[in-house]
């Protein structure tokens, strides 16, 4: 599957983070949509399933983990990368231990790291889908 057919959803209450990641992944050829809240992300996911979601942990209203929980009810196998400030790493590590999340990135993140992680996750998912057919 080419990058141009891969659809990413970026969820962060920080407009600057959304804009930065939108530009980064759009320039890479991905279809990218952004949401500034968990509620907005849920509306988007109900309408169109992303290939991967980049989701901030700490957001006003519905937190990233609450949003993740609701997204997984709609699309259980969707890959999600949680984005977190280092002060929230304990929460992420606990959620990872409980099997709620597989991937996370600390903020501020390195753009090359996030680019590589997204490519790897999508490639792994594509290979897995070919095998399970």
From TrEMBL:
Listed InterPro entries: Bact_response_regulator, CheY-like_superfamily, Sig_transdc_resp-reg_receiver
Designated name of the protein: Stage 0 sporulation protein A homolog
A GO biological-process term: phosphorelay signal transduction system
Alphabetically ordered keywords of this record: Phosphoprotein
Entry coiled-coil feature ranges: none
Record-listed 4-aspartylphosphate modification sites: 56
Domain of life: Bacteria
This protein's record includes keyword Metal-binding: no
Residue span(s) of domain Response regulatory: 7-122
Upper classification of the organism: Bacteria, Bacillati, Bacillota, Clostridia, Eubacteriales
The keyword Phosphoprotein is assigned to this record: yes
Protein task: May play the central regulatory role in sporulation. It may be an element of the effector pathway responsible for the activation of sporulation genes in response to nutritional stress. Spo0A may act in concert with spo0H (a sigma factor) to control the expression of some genes that are critical to the sporulation process.
């Amino acid at each position: 599957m080419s990058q141009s057919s891969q659809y990413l959803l970026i969820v962060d209450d920080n407009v600057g983070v959304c804009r930065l990641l939108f530009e980064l992944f759009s320039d890479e050829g991905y279809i990218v949509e952004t949401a500034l809240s968990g509620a907005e992300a849920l509306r988007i996911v109900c309408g169109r399933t992303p290939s991967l979601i980049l989701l901030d942990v700490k957001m006003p209203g519905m937190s990233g983990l609450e949003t993740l929980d609701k997204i997984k009810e709609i699309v259980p196998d969707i890959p999600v990368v949680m984005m977190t400030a280092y002060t929230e790493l304990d929460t992420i590590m606990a959620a990872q231990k409980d099997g709620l999340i597989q991937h996370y990135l600390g903020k501020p993140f390195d753009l090359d790291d996030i680019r590589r992680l997204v490519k790897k996750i999508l490639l792994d998912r594509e290979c897995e889908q070919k095998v399970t057919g």
